[in-house]
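Section 5: illustrative case.
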């Protein structure tokens, strides 16, 4: 009878589709869960020997401290997954053993369309919280779980640790480390949004893409909210991007992009209209880069200490307002659009080659080479504050037709007589603009002529006479002196000859016959 009962139990387990094998080192699992299941620390580690499916209306609960080794298999959730660790006792999900910096095996956790959505109001639904996910790719398909306070360690090339295809999942408070080294021609993405309305907030992207074109977040479609995240740039021999928008209408706000000289923070390749606001871009290769079809509103951001602040491609429609663009080593803004109420200071060039648009109510101050470099088009740059009210000084900071007649003219009059009240404050470290001094004719001092009675010696009189003769005929003084000596000698010779001749006649007359 006991043997029959055991056989029936084993058959029931097989029928349910799930097979547990208790080992000295935990349990081995595989198959479909048809009843609520609880994996405790006593069961750890839980080792997959096949794919595990969580059926509709079934809950799988995983306790703090449990290690789940998916091997090369996957965990598919059609019901509810509650994997809640604690800050001091995290859950670990891992795939097969991996080698550093090689294309390696990853294992998926998949939330399907029927999985239970998370609700903050009822604190229920599908959630992974306080967990380490090592070489796990999380796939969300028309589902809305919460993934919170987890650490993703990933190094499989061209597979995103998190991919979202529909739904409204919450991705919050996670650290995502994606380290890829080695050559390749594809793109590497940490998070990719194919569709849906996910909230991606308060995460840290600490990724090292050595030789691949990389994106911390790629938006292919959908309307994600991307806010309050930190993006750390690292060296890459290819393009290293924070957020790339191929299509869709994301809302990107209140993020910090720490470029370390390598990161292009946001790349817009779409033609959809969306807003980028209140972000901080520091030490980025470029803060925002657009394409010809871009339609952006860029407002309330800070672009600090990078190479270029904003690159606006020809043909893009971009409104730039209320931003602080300070101390970039090349251009504050490259290109043009509707540029208003910004503070553009201490860059090498404030605005470079704006082909069109209006530039107004900005503070454009103390850019080290030029405030504006013109293109062949005329530019309206009236009603800006230039750090001075001296027209000549302002004009000297603008490179336009007055320097190169092939360029258009930048019109800057009238200008503001004090900083723009609608723009961010000018940084206190900004040098004061010194007006160019006006060049006036230098007055010559009036000479005081003193007439004195000369007490010169004959030599001095001779020198004076010689000098005067030389001045009259513009002849060197020495030449004049020699000529005078020769004339005197000639006179003496003539006089001597005359005296001698006269003396001879006198002697002849005195002699007796």
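Designed sequence:
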């Amino acid at each position: 009878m006991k043997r029959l009962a055991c056989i029936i139990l084993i058959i029931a387990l097989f029928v349910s589709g799930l097979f547990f094998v208790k080992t000295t080192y935990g349990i081995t699992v595989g198959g479909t869960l048809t009843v609520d299941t609880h994996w405790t620390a006593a069961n750890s580690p839980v080792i997959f020997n096949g794919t595990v499916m969580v059926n509709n209306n079934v809950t799988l609960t995983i306790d703090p401290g449990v290690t789940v080794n998916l091997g090369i298999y996957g965990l598919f959730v059609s019901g509810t997954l509650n994997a809640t660790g604690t800050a001091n006792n995290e859950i670990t999900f891992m795939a097969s053993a991996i080698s550093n910096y090689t294309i390696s095996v990853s294992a998926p956790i998949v939330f399907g369309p029927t999985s239970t959505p998370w609700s903050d109001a009822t604190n229920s639904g599908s959630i992974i919280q306080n967990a380490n996910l090592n070489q796990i790719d999380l796939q969300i398909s028309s589902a809305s779980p919460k993934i919170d306070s987890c650490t993703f360690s990933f190094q499989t090339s061209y597979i995103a640790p998190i991919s979202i295809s529909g739904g409204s999942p919450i991705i919050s408070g996670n650290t995502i480390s994606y380290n890829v080294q080695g050559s390749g021609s594809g793109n590497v993405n940490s998070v990719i949004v194919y569709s849906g309305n996910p909230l991606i907030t308060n995460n840290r992207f600490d990724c090292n893409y050595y030789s691949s074109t990389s994106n911390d977040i790629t938006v292919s479609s959908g309307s994600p909210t991307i806010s309050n995240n930190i993006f750390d740039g690292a060296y890459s021999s290819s393009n290293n991007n924070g957020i790339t928008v191929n299509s869709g209408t994301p809302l990107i706000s209140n993020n910090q992009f720490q470029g370390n000289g390598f990161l292009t923070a946001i790349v817009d390749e779409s033609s959809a209209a969306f807003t980028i606001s209140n972000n901080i871009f520091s030490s980025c290769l470029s803060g925002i880069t657009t394409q010809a079809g871009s339609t952006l509103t860029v407002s309330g951001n800070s672009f600090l200490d990078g190479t270029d602040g904003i690159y606006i491609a020809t043909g893009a429609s971009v409104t730039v307002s209320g931003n602080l663009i300070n101390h970039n080593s090349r251009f504050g803004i490259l290109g043009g659009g509707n540029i208003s109420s910004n503070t553009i200071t201490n860059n090498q060039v404030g605005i470079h080659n704006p082909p069109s648009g209006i530039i107004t109510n900005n503070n454009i101050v103390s850019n080290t080479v030029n405030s504006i470099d013109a293109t062949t088009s005329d530019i309206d740059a009236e009603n800006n504050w230039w750090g001075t009210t001296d027209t000549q000084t302002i004009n000297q900071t603008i490179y336009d037709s007055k320097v190169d007649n092939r360029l258009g003219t930048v019109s800057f009059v009238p200008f503001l007589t004090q900083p723009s009240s609608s723009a961010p404050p000018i940084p206190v470290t900004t040098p004061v603009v010194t007006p160019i001094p006006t060049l006036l004719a230098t007055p010559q001092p009036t000479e005081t002529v003193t007439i004195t009675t000369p007490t010169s010696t004959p030599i001095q009189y001779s020198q004076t006479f010689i000098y005067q003769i030389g001045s009259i005929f513009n002849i060197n003084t020495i030449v004049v002196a020699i000529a005078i000596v020769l004339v005197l000698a000639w006179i003496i010779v003539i006089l001597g000859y005359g005296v001698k001749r006269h003396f001879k006649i006198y002697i002849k007359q005195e002699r007796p016959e």
